[in-house]
C-alpha cells in the first residue's frame, strides 16, 4: 500500500490576451444605418403624393441630363442665338411673344392637310350614304303602309313617292272624285286628314326635318284682289302642317311651309288638270336642311302660327315638278271660310296669308 505512486495534478492557468475594439466600430456603423433607414421610412410616411412623385423623378434623373441643353451655352436650343430673344424680360412685347410662338410652331405638312381633307370628305360621303339609305328604307315602309292599309290603298293612285336631290318627296294629288279640300277653302276633307296621319306615323320615325308646299291649278277666280291662289296654296300647306302636328308629329321637325300657287304645275300641258292641285311633303336630307337653315339666317322669314305667314321675298323659285311627280291642293273658287279672288298667275310670291 505504501509503494503506490502519488499522482499530483497541476492545472496551469493562463490569462487571456487583450481583445481589440473593431467590433464596436462595425456595431456603430450598423446602428447608424438602421437609424437612417427608419428616419427615411418616417419621412416617407408623412410625404404627400406630389412630394413622392418629385422624389421619384429626382432619382430617375438626379443630374438632369434629360432636360438639359446639348450645348455648353444654352442659346435657345440651337447653335445660333434666336433673334427674337432678349436679355431683358421687360422689353419683350406681346407682339414679339406671338411672333416667337408662330416661328416655334412647325408648318403643317402637306400630307397631313391632304389626309385631313380626305378624312373629312370620306366622313361626309359616309353620312350622305347613310342618309340615302335611311330615306330609301322609309320609302319602302311608306309603300308597304299604303299597300297594307285599306284606307290608303283606296287613294294609292293619288299618292306618289320619289327620291330627289333634296330627300324623299311624298306627293298627294287631288282628283275630281276624291278632292282633298273644299272648293276655295283650306278646310281638309276627313279622308285626306286620315291619310296625312297615317303617313305621318311613318315619316316621324326619322329625325329629318320636312318641308310642306301647296300647289294649285291655273284656274282663275274673281273676287277681291286680297286673296289669290298664292294665299290659297299657302293656307292649304299650313292646314296640312296643323293636321300633322295635331296627330302627334313633332312641330320642331317642320322646316318650312311654302305656297307656290300655279307656278310649278304637275301637268304643264293641262294647267287645269286636277292633279296640279297637290300637297308636297319632302323628308329633307341633311344637305337640304342645311341649305334651308342658311337661307333663313340670310333673311328668310317663315313664321308658324295658327295660320302661317310667308314673306314673299323669302320664297325662292322651285324647279318645276317632273312629269311623274304628284302632290295636292285644289285651286279655289270662292266658297267656304276663305274669300275668293282672281288667281294671280305664277308671277310673284304669295303675300302674307290671312291669319
TrEMBL record:
<keyword id="KW-0472">Membrane</keyword>
<protein>
    <submittedName>
        <fullName>Motility protein MotB</fullName>
    </submittedName>
</protein>
<dbReference type="InterPro" id="IPR025713">
    <property type="entry name" value="MotB-like_N_dom"/>
</dbReference>
<dbReference type="Pfam" id="PF13677">
    <property type="entry name" value="MotB_plug"/>
</dbReference>
<dbReference type="GO" id="GO:0005886">
    <property type="term" value="C:plasma membrane"/>
</dbReference>
<comment type="similarity">
    <text>Belongs to the MotB family.</text>
</comment>
<feature type="region of interest" description="Disordered">
    <location>
        <begin position="74"/>
        <end position="132"/>
    </location>
</feature>
<feature type="transmembrane region" description="Helical">
    <location>
        <begin position="21"/>
        <end position="44"/>
    </location>
</feature>
<keyword id="KW-0812">Transmembrane</keyword>
<feature type="compositionally biased region" description="Polar residues">
    <location>
        <begin position="83"/>
        <end position="102"/>
    </location>
</feature>
<keyword id="KW-1133">Transmembrane helix</keyword>
<dbReference type="InterPro" id="IPR006665">
    <property type="entry name" value="OmpA-like"/>
</dbReference>
<dbReference type="Pfam" id="PF00691">
    <property type="entry name" value="OmpA"/>
</dbReference>
<feature type="region of interest" description="Disordered">
    <location>
        <begin position="294"/>
        <end position="355"/>
    </location>
</feature>
<feature type="compositionally biased region" description="Polar residues">
    <location>
        <begin position="112"/>
        <end position="126"/>
    </location>
</feature>
<keyword id="KW-1003">Cell membrane</keyword>
<dbReference type="InterPro" id="IPR050330">
    <property type="entry name" value="Bact_OuterMem_StrucFunc"/>
</dbReference>
<feature type="compositionally biased region" description="Low complexity">
    <location>
        <begin position="322"/>
        <end position="355"/>
    </location>
</feature>
<dbReference type="InterPro" id="IPR036737">
    <property type="entry name" value="OmpA-like_sf"/>
</dbReference>
<feature type="domain" description="OmpA-like">
    <location>
        <begin position="168"/>
        <end position="287"/>
    </location>
</feature>
Amino acid at each position: 500500500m505504501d509503494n503506490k505512486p502519488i499522482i499530483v495534478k497541476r492545472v496551469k492557468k493562463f490569462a487571456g490576451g487583450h481583445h481589440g475594439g473593431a467590433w464596436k466600430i462595425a456595431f456603430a456603423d450598423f446602428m447608424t444605418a438602421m437609424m437612417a433607414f427608419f428616419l427615411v421610412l418616417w419621412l416617407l410616411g408623412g410625404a404627400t403624393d406630389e412630394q413622392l412623385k418629385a422624389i421619384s423623378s429626382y432619382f430617375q434623373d438626379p443630374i438632369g441630363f434629360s432636360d438639359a441643353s446639348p450645348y455648353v451655352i444654352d442659346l435657345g436650343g440651337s447653335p445660333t442665338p434666336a433673334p427674337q430673344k432678349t436679355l431683358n424680360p421687360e422689353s419683350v412685347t406681346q407682339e414679339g411673344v406671338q411672333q416667337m410662338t408662330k416661328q416655334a410652331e412647325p408648318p403643317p405638312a402637306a400630307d397631313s392637310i391632304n389626309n385631313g381633307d380626305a378624312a373629312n370628305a370620306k366622313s361626309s360621303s359616309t353620312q350622305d350614304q347613310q342618309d340615302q339609305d335611311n330615306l330609301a328604307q322609309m320609302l319602302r315602309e311608306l309603300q308597304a303602309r299604303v299597300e297594307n292599309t285599306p284606307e290608303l290603298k283606296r287613294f294609292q293612285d293619288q299618292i306618289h313617292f320619289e327620291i330627289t336631290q333634296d330627300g324623299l318627296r311624298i306627293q298627294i294629288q287631288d282628283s275630281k272624285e276624291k278632292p282633298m279640300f273644299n272648293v276655295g277653302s283650306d278646310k281638309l276633307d276627313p279622308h285626306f286628314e286620315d291619310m296625312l296621319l297615317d303617313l305621318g306615323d311613318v315619316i316621324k320615325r326619322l329625325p329629318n326635318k320636312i318641308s310642306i308646299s301647296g300647289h294649285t291649278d291655273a284656274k282663275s277666280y274673281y273676287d277681291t284682289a286680297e286673296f289669290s291662289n298664292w294665299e290659297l296654296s299657302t293656307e292649304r300647306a299650313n292646314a296640312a302642317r296643323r293636321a300633322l302636328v295635331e296627330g302627334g308629329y313633332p312641330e320642331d321637325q317642320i322646316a318650312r311651309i311654302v305656297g307656290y300657287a300655279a307656278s310649278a304645275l304637275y301637268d304643264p300641258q293641262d294647267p287645269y288638270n286636277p292633279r296640279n292641285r297637290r300637297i308636297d311633303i319632302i323628308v329633307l336630307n341633311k344637305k337640304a336642311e342645311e341649305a334651308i337653315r342658311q337661307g333663313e339666317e340670310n333673311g328668310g322669314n317663315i313664321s308658324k302660327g295658327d295660320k302661317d305667314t310667308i314673306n314673299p321675298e323669302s320664297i325662292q323659285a322651285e324647279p318645276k315638278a317632273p312629269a311623274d311627280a304628284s302632290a295636292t291642293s285644289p285651286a279655289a273658287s270662292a266658297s267656304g271660310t276663305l274669300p275668293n279672288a282672281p288667281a294671280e298667275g305664277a308671277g310673284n310670291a304669295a303675300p302674307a296669308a290671312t291669319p
